[in-house]
Amino acid sequence: MDLTVEPNLESLINSSTHRWIFVGGKGGVGKTTSSCSIAIQMATAQPNKQFLLISTDPAHNLSDAFGEKFGKDARRVTGMTNLSCMEIDPSAALKDMNDMAVANNTQGSGEFSDLLQGGALSELTGSIPGIDEALSFMEVMKHIKNQENGDGDKYDTVIFDTAPTGHTLRFLQLPTTLSKLLEKFGEITSRLGPMLNSFAGANNVDLVGKMSELKSNVEKIREQFTNPDMTTFVCVCISEFLSLYETERLVQELISYDMDVNSIIVNQLLFAEYDEGESCKRCQSRWKMQKKYLDQIDELYEDFHIVKMPLCAGEIRGLNNLRKFSQFLRTPYDPVADSKVIYELEQQD
Amino acid sequence: MNSWLSLILAFLVLEKVWPLIESMIQRLTQASSSKMKELMHQKRAIQEQQKQISAQDEYVKWTKNNRTLEKINKQIEDEKKQLVAKVDRTKASLKKVKLALITVPFTILKIYKRQLPIYELPKGIFPNYLQGLFQHGWLYLALGPLNIKKVSDGAHVTVSLAIWLFAVTKVVSTLEGIWQSLTAPSIAAPAVTTDPIEELNEHVIDPVDQPVD
Asked: Would strands A231-238 and A20-25 be described as parallel, antiparallel, or unpaired?
């Protein structure tokens, strides 16, 4: 029995069970390129399914990667029939919430109404640490609800282009944190009961009911995120000490959250020894350093899919370039046979 | 010596010595955790190893050591929690034992034998009211003025167990206080960098000449 793990993401790309795929790692290692590549390959391999690529990084790059504008509403990628993209915009989402609050408070008057009209709610809540992660989480909950109720657009798989490591870990902790919070809230409501609804004002809002619904949704998400058949995390790194150390930290944290992680994409590899002609001393020296860490990655993560991606001659922007680059997620990059590809990237404006 | 008095003295000594017995038993409980020692030893060994290898040159070994350290730290935390729980259980048990073997019997004995005469004092040394207090105990404070309790006839007045115990415990706690203050670690005097008189003079402002009208 061959126990070696394939150095590609073929099994993930062809997976019919995965609903949530997170792509994350240190800043600047190629998360956006990798998440776009994974999304493109999955959409190409499974044309009958719908895929959604969401950016949860406040410094969005999806629009730049595809060379077209995406917003807070999912929009299909030009040239793809089953891949849509979305960039969650915290300020726009908070403005929507503020407008809803204004609409609900039409009968009110005085300073509170003036504050709402002035957008005070969105300004106040927009600066709360962790608000980006909370809004991304709300988006996840909305999708789960849509799936169950059959409302809105249905997506078979959602791929997350995440923020750098710390923010993502905070996002992934949200189900557990919220779950504990809501449990405490449940204890309070069992004692105070309907009295709590009076705090919600004269709008007859069933606070207890809404909190119970939120709790059940959060539990569903927690179950799905810890199910290895439904959720996986793809780590992206480069072959340097700091990036590897952060990847190791990320892997250990994810394991502690019971989250499946079995793939690592190592980006920006030089493969300088295979260059035609004489490569520069700097590239040779850098490649030597990268190789040293590559060998160690193979040893350290022997049961992971380690995918080695080349550093291209140009920027990987636009659908065509991303398609060319993403093929190496399925078939491992051969520095001799595939070297021409990295020079064939089209110039993007 | 009266057997009751011996018993009461024994209880008194036991009550004073009990904290020592308690701390000895707790120390024995903590010392019996050999697993904790082993884990700490393992942790120190790996930390020493980490200091000697280069993270960049031997990244695999360094990372594997880090993983082992994480596991050991977690085990140490769990072991600590178990130890704290064990110590708390021991404390709770000892508290119950003290209550059952010392506090309750001693209290019953003190109440039951409160008027047991310990020794006699010649009458006339202390005011009558105090003599009544010595003989009948604290109740005399309330009942004496109502003539319900009276000082006995005779040339001597007895000192009851209640009052004698009160005096003994007061003396013992005073001696304990003196011992603690003598053996407490000394607090170093604050360092004085400037001459206090010079510092005082720095703030003296020369009077401004008043304008002459």
From this structure: parallel
Mean pLDDT of B97-115: 89
Expressed as residue numbers, the domain containing A289 is 1-348
One-letter amino acid for residue B84 of the chain: V
**What pLDDT sits at residue B97?**
92
Tell me whether residue A151 is exposed, middle or buried, using C-beta atoms within 10 angstroms of its C-beta: 0 to 12, 13 to 18, 19 or more.
Answer: exposed
Choose from A248, A250, A302, A304 for mutation: most chain B CBs within 10 A. Answer: A248
Residue B120: enclosing H or E segment and its boundaries?
strand B117-122
What CATH number corresponds to the domain at position A32? 3.40.50.300
Q: According to the 3-state scheme, what is the secondary structure of A80-102? A: CCCEEEEECCHHHHHHHHHHHHH
Q: Which amino acid is at A308?
A: K
Catalytic pick from A57, A132, A161, A260?
A57
| B53 in A contact zone (CB under 8 Å) | no
Please say if A156 is a catalytic residue.
no
Strand partners, A55: A87, A161
| pLDDT of A45 | 94
pLDDT at A27 over 60: yes
Q: Taking residues B62-81, what's their average pLDDT?
A: 93
d(Cα B136, Cα B115) in Å, to the nearest integer?
Answer: 6
Using CB atoms and an 8 Å cut-off, which of residues 225-244 of chain A contact chain B? Answer: 241, 244
DSSP A301: T
Half-sphere exposure of A124 (CA within 13 A, CB side): 8
Determine the Cα–Cα distance for residues A247 and B59; give it in Å rounded to an integer. Answer: 13
Going through chain A in order, the beta strands assigned E by DSSP cover 20-25, 51-55, 75-76, 83-87, 157-161, 231-238, 261-269, 305-310
Mean per-residue pLDDT for B130-140? 84
The ipTM is 0.74
Structural domains of chain A, count: 1
Query: Which of the pair, B188 or A218, is modelled with greater confidence?
Result: B188
When pLDDT is cut at 50, 70 and 90, the band that residue A114 belongs to is: low
DSSP string, A108-137: --SHHHHHHHTTHHHHHHHTSTTHHHHHHH
Model confidence, pTM? 0.72
Three-state secondary structure of B129-161 = HHHHHHHHCCCHHHHCCCCCCCCCCCCEEEEEH
Task: Give me the pLDDT at residue A307, please.
Answer: 95
Coil/strand/helix, residue B80: helix
